[in-house]
């Protein structure tokens, strides 16, 4: 009960301050969604890639992945890591990708572990991606994530404030204060300053990270009248602060000390340093978690929100940083459900599938969280599957329509979506469920959606 009250309170807070952020596909009437689906048949959604077969150290700024600066129509956004991967061709250079491509790219390019990769990617995808086309922009809104569903849908990409992108970033302004997705030189100067003052040899290390993390929070509290610092942002804010000292440090040094030259390369130029090597082994929750805890413990904080600049109101009833399962539950029940209050048919199926993939990452952390089903447990929900044997395998084991027995027919139409970018519209290159059947509600998908194109 206490927790539900907390959700209700927060929901009000969010509505008051963040309405524009919450306009993805969510909020459409069923009629509008049906119409959209008839006109834009949903793609078949493959399982996410498994762990890398070879997760050893490797030079990743190699001849196959040359840096090419983004063109005017290429999307770049708030995450310097993803921007860099796109500019080196680990992601489609236009910045439009499937979740599977994102998992592949962060594993290949930076050596994120599979559970951690799925956790990050599906969290972002569930709120900023297009579940019906299985595409997301790593920056702003783009027509390449598929034809727009009817208003008020936006499918806004990672730039969408208050979703994946959040306040108190290290090198990006708060949305209310300035540009929340482009590199900010003033903030980078502060990054350099804190590294000089607190880091070993002027590097961005764990101490610099702890101090700068706290400084940015204090700044947002003081300056941003609409500062929001509750789950899930509390987790991503502390995590981001340590990503740079893990993933942006050359794997041959691997000393968790980021030089300012390398920081400039990644944050500003979105460029891997010459000869850059990724991490020497896959980096998963067991590596990340203790570092996150370390910087948090140097400046512990109760989650909260500003009601006016300088007026930070703690929200102790919301999940705290150490309550990983609580943050997961809050995310699924409050944020995902808030975006998609009453999905049906293929939209519901796609959401349930992505929620499963998200939970695979959660379960892989080993914290004993129980899966939450915001739309009820599908009659035969796929349990998190074992990791795929290869980095790019598509395992056709998860049915697109939980509750039906069309698993095998779904498999037969499984597209080669992970191998080739599907960034064009009209969904060329991927098999689709025929439009007529796609409009069937979820209780009749078994009889209607078995035909493949
Ligand atoms: C950059 O950050 C500074 C310091 O927070 C802020 O005053 C400025 O408005 C930001 N610039 C942009 C373009 O967001
Ligand atoms: C600082 O950098 C110098 C020169 O690179 C190096 O010799 C020294 O060991 C470094 N100090 C620490 C504490 O890492
Ligand atoms: C649910 O799926 C499992 C595994 O695919 C299968 O063994 C089982 O028979 C299914 N149950 C129902 C009710 O379809
Ligand atoms: C689907 O499952 C139902 C109940 O499990 C079964 O009666 C039916 O024969 C199955 N249909 C197919 C095509 O396998
Ligand atoms: C989809 O394909 C049709 C026919 O090939 C074409 O006329 C239309 O412009 C395409 N739509 C988009 C958004 O590219
Ligand atoms: C689904 O199939 C049934 C019979 O197989 C058909 O009557 C119905 O119109 C179909 N529904 C859709 C939306 O195609
Ligand atoms: C299931 O299908 C029947 C017949 O098409 C329809 O009347 C009913 O509303 C559907 N139930 C749900 C939950 O969609």
Automatic annotation (TrEMBL):
<keyword id="KW-0349">Heme</keyword>
<feature type="signal peptide">
    <location>
        <begin position="1"/>
        <end position="18"/>
    </location>
</feature>
<dbReference type="Pfam" id="PF01328">
    <property type="entry name" value="Peroxidase_2"/>
</dbReference>
<dbReference type="InterPro" id="IPR000028">
    <property type="entry name" value="Chloroperoxidase"/>
</dbReference>
<comment type="similarity">
    <text>Belongs to the chloroperoxidase family.</text>
</comment>
<keyword id="KW-0408">Iron</keyword>
<dbReference type="GO" id="GO:0046872">
    <property type="term" value="F:metal ion binding"/>
</dbReference>
<keyword id="KW-0732">Signal</keyword>
<keyword id="KW-0560">Oxidoreductase</keyword>
<protein>
    <recommendedName>
        <fullName>Heme haloperoxidase family profile domain-containing protein</fullName>
    </recommendedName>
</protein>
<keyword id="KW-0479">Metal-binding</keyword>
<feature type="domain" description="Heme haloperoxidase family profile">
    <location>
        <begin position="63"/>
        <end position="298"/>
    </location>
</feature>
<dbReference type="InterPro" id="IPR036851">
    <property type="entry name" value="Chloroperoxidase-like_sf"/>
</dbReference>
<dbReference type="GO" id="GO:0004601">
    <property type="term" value="F:peroxidase activity"/>
</dbReference>
<keyword id="KW-0575">Peroxidase</keyword>
